[in-house]
Design goal:
Strand content: 15-25%
Number of domains: 3
Radius of gyration: 25 Å
Strand order of the largest sheet: 11-10-20-21-22-19-23
Helix content: 25-40%
Length: 615
């Protein structure tokens, strides 16, 4: 059967751009393009939901993904997620885009609300709550000092001096020049950088491993010190700087509060957004004997087996994840630009799993006004109790009206045996995953004022990206030493910036004149795979098209991760040392003075205390 030739672009004068992939990167590219007079078509493989990994999922969607009844209420099915969303304050690109998406009488950015606490949950102990924002009053100020400088080290099992040492490691990243970060720390593991082998179990679990696993699904032994240090610093600086919380969440299910209004805006502006379009092949005509070439066409298919051909775009943006892009890089594309070879290695070797499971409860259990990190969890769980943030959403109008609370959980370690289920999550059935996660949650909150109990649970839902397949190909590294083992597959894993991966990551532009990349593995200021990096990469791709096409349009704005101006002098000094082949010298006297104040128990001047209580 001959493929159907697609002609999605409306009539007009602007250059035609095909965006392959309709996740955050693809939608971001479409947004910037359509507002600049380009003609845009987006092709998304999902049958009806936009947003890629950021999308909400109506429960149930069919298949063995949970045990929720198939009952649709006034507001639809129960709201599931691929994984919960959060928006740190250092995000600038994606929030700028959100500020330009109409929503009611305002914009989507108005749907972001602050959390106020971060909860640390442990087995056999009461959970610890920390402020998630700059101290707003005397109570916040005293609490952060008490928890961080006295109670917290003891509760975490940290040894004397370990907090000071970890602060010094952060200062080393902070005061190092960009060249040292990119060339030295990029090739050094975070575990090695923070000297975790020679520290206490509490230090390893909380400071070295816990945050990297829970926040970005990264193994601390493999994650590089460059990215982990940069992002860790960004989060900490968000916390200690006056202003909004470092941790913001949406005030409703992701598609309701963000993605569906975004899609409606793009379509109203003229974007042709086509669902159920799987990208099968990108056909490139390379230049003979020299780099460069041109994308001639793209072949696609749908779930029913129909095939399609797109061949009239002026430019193509591949807004696809690394593992999908790796399969599309054939000899024709690599002959035109062999630097894209690194994407294959990224897609095959540097992706991890970070997927969500929702527990729908018969009563609302807030737990904490923010995210909870489960430090003793073998599966590196994080959670948020979402109902408290969903103003305007009555859960009684979803499903059959029985649900009063939603506990949304992310699973970040799929390789370690559980406590109740003695095997890694990758080898578990959906029901076994639910059993282990629920038991880890109950055990972590057992001594809290509000524990979790079995009678609270109404139903549960696991991200349907996790599917069960039969594995017969023998032993793979990191897997149990058995053959013919049933193993789960993940259709949407997450790129993780492990050791020395920067060299593999491409720019948003390529040597193929009409071909650009927009995905979270592209080189960006943000570095780590996030919605922010995806949006930034999309802006870089659009800027490349603007510059190449000569189209009269302003370039998209880009922001580097913000750090205080006074750090510049530290970096300048270290750059001078680095260029002379000298090692990092250590924190400057000023840096040591600042960390010394913290280490001595937070003795701050009265002027500073007054400034804090006024903020």
């Amino acid at each position: 059967m001959e493929p159907v030739t697609l002609r999605p672009f409306p009539d007009g004068d602007g250059p035609k751009v095909a965006v392959l992939g309709g996740g955050v990167a693809g939608m971001s590219a479409a947004h910037e393009l359509i507002e600049r007079g380009f003609r845009v078509a987006v092709f998304e493989r999902q049958p009806e939901l936009c947003g890629g990994k950021a999308r909400s999922l109506p429960v149930p969607v069919g298949g063995p993904s949970g045990n929720c009844p198939d009952i649709k209420g006034e507001m639809g099915y129960l709201p599931g997620e691929h994984g919960f969303r959060f928006f740190p304050r250092f995000y600038r690109h994606v929030t700028d885009t959100m500020s330009r998406i109409p929503y009611g009488d305002g914009h989507v950015i108005d749907n972001l609300v602050d959390t106020t606490r971060v909860q640390l949950a442990l087995y056999g102990k009461e959970s610890i709550e920390l402020p998630a924002r700059f101290p707003r009053d005397e109570e916040d100020f005293e609490k952060i000092l008490q928890d961080l400088l006295s109670d917290l080290p003891a509760e975490m099992g940290l040894e004397p001096g370990e907090v000071d040492f970890f602060v010094d490691r952060l200062w080393q990243v902070y005061s190092s020049c960009d060249a040292r970060r990119e060339e030295i720390y990029e090739t050094m593991g975070w575990w090695e950088f923070v000297d975790a082998d020679n520290k206490s179990l509490g230090y390893q679990k909380f400071l070295a491993e816990g945050l990297t696993r829970s926040l970005v699904a990264a193994n601390a032994h493999l994650a590089n010190a460059h990215v982990e240090g940069d992002i860790g610093l960004a989060l900490i600086l968000d916390m200690i700087t006056p202003g909004p919380s470092t941790d913001r969440v949406l005030n409703g299910p992701t598609n309701d509060a963000w993605l569906d209004p975004w899609l409606a805006y793009l379509q109203k502006k003229g974007v042709a957004y086509q669902f159920d379009r799987h990208i099968d092949r990108i056909i490139c005509r390379p230049n003979r004997g020299r780099p460069g070439g041109e994308i001639e066409s793209v072949q696609m298919s749908d779930a029913a087996g129909h095939t399609y051909l797109l061949d009239d775009a002026d430019y193509y943006i591949a807004a696809l994840p690394a593992e999908k892009m790796a399969m599309l890089l054939d000899d024709g594309i690599l002959a035109a630009d062999n630097s894209l070879e690194g994407i294959k290695e990224i897609g095959n070797n540097y992706v991890e799993w970070m997927n969500g499971i929702q527990f729908f409860l018969k009563e609302d259990v807030p737990l904490a006004h923010g995210h909870t990190i489960y430090l003793d969890s073998p599966w590196a769980l994080t959670s948020i109790s979402q109902r408290q943030f969903w103003a305007g959403y009555d859960l009684a109008e979803f499903g059959d009206g029985s649900v009063k609370g939603v506990l949304s959980v992310d699973i970040s370690n799929w390789h370690q045996n559980g406590n109740t289920v003695d095997k890694p999550a990758k080898y578990c059935t959906s029901d076994e995953i639910k059993t282990e996660v629920w038991e880890e949650l109950k055990r972590s909150h057992a001594l809290d004022e509000q524990p979790l109990t079995d009678d609270m649970l109404y139903c549960w839902f696991l991200d349907p990206d996790i599917t069960r397949e039969q594995f017969v190909a023998g032993i793979r590294p990191g897997m149990v030493p058995e053959t013919d083992v049933p193993i789960s597959e993940n259709s949407e894993p997450l790129f993780v910036a492990y050791l020395n991966t920067w060299r593999l990551r491409p720019q948003a532009f390529t040597q193929i004149a009409n071909f650009f990349l927009a995905s979270d593995y592209v080189r960006t200021f943000t570095s780590v795979a996030t919605m922010e990096a995806a949006n930034e990469a999309a802006r870089r791709a659009v800027n490349g098209i603007i510059q190449h096409s000569g189209h009269r349009a302003s370039l998209c704005r880009l922001w580097n991760v913000t750090e205080p101006a006074f750090a510049f002098i530290f970096r300048l000094e270290d750059h001078y040392r680095y260029m002379r082949g000298l090692p990092w010298k250590g924190p400057s006297p000023l840096a040591r003075a600042v960390t010394g104040v913290v280490a001595r128990g937070g003795r701050v001047s009265m002027m500073a205390r007054r400034a804090l209580t006024r903020s």
